[in-house]
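Journal club prep — side note

Before the paper discussion, L.F. wants everyone to see what a predicted structure for a comparable chain looks like in token form. Sequence:
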Amino acid sequence: MLALTMNKSYSCGRTDCVLYCPRFVSRAIVTNLREGEEYYFICRQWLAVDIGDGLLDRTFKVATPQDMKGFSHLFTSRATL
């Protein structure tokens, strides 16, 4: 069995491209349907050339149990329900 440790996300970088859509990645869940495992990612980053630091390609690490218990994650999770 292979454990997921990172998630790579990206966005089209041309602002004149029909596919260009700046996006804010707050958090993500990846589910392994075969094994029934879930992996959580706390991202809080923009994928955009004209917002934030301009990066379109990011790698996010799997959240640790400590990350999931952190105040900022719990606050934003509860505030958006």
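L.F.'s comment for the group: The mean pLDDT is 77. Keep this in mind when we get to the figures.
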